[in-house]
Amino acid sequence: MPRNLDMTALRAFVTVAETGGVTRAAGQLHLTQSAVSMQIKRLEDMLNQPLLERSGRGVALTAHGEQMLGYGRRILALNDEVWSRMTDQAFEGEVTFGVPADIVYPHIPDILRRFSIEYPRVKVNLISSYTSRLKRQMARGEVDMILTTELDLDQGGEVLENAKMVWVGAPNGSAWKNRPIRLAFNHDCIFRTFAQRALDEADIRWEMGVESDSIRTVEASVSADLAVHAALEGTVNQHMEVIGDSGNLPELPMFNINMYIAGGPQQDLANRLAVFVRAAYGRPAIAAE
User: Fold this and answer.
1) Which of 58, 87, 175, 220 is the most exposed place for a label (fewest CB within 10 A)?
2) Predicted model pTM
3) DSSP labels for the chain?
4) pLDDT tens track for 165-222
5) How many domains are there within the chain?
6) Which residue range(s) make up the domain with 229?
7) Are 25 and 153 within one domain?
């Protein structure tokens, strides 16, 4: 049958071992010497092992005591970490985080996971939408922090990454060979206009094959080799692939992935979430205030 260690007794033992005596430990723990000695005896009885060798000059660890000290330090450190995080009222609440659907992967899931571990009392509401819509929502105070895909950077923003826009098709697909070439895009996708303009400038005929409000519909159509799409390099999922130079399609521009943090009551929480976003994109750390 499993047994549980007495954390008070364990803390008394570790403190005695680290300070070198019951008297010093009692002062640190704000207990009497007899109370500390009773806690040590309790722990020894539970383990059925002597942990300390007592002499007139103080105490020394037995072989079992040396081993227990290593365990005890780790157990107490984890105990104190859990207690601090689960009872800390300083960082709790909700923060609304907006991200364009086409850059949710690969970073956002890991950002949310790591932030949740560090701030378990903070709820992150993730909104997936288009850059233009996210910026309007931020202007109305509906989101606390957003990522965007843009050519430039507006005032108050921060560039996380410069990414190349690439043509995307089905694995081993041939839709890129068709003329007119069929395109698949969301209605408000910022990449749509740039892809169409590049084809016009290269004198390549095109037509809209798929128009949808759902990125999943676009991805399904492209992976079925019904059309081609444009996305940022590094965000293409396993059901599609970048069309190489052999596709003879025109070059597409570089884009920024930018981050904006709104002012307001949730700004502190948003700043703390931003630390994890920067880390995911390999940007220099800026400590949360």
Assistant:
1) 87
2) 0.66
3) ------HHHHHHHHHHHHHTSHHHHHHHHT--HHHHHHHHHHHHHHHTS--EEEETTEEEE-HHHHHHHHHHHHHHHHHHHHHHHHH--SS-EEEEEEEEGGGSTTTHHHHHHHHHHH-TTEEEEEEEE-HHHHHHHHHTT--SEEEEEESS--TT-EEEEEEEEEEEE-TT--GGGSSSEEEEEETT-HHHHHHHHHHHHTT--EEEEEEES-HHHHHHHHHTTS-BEEEETT---TT-EE--GGG-PPP--EEEEEEEE--STTHHHHHHHHHHHHHHTTPPP----
4) 999 999 999 999 999 999 999 888 889 999 999 999 999 999 999 998 888 899 999 9
5) 2
6) 91-289
7) no
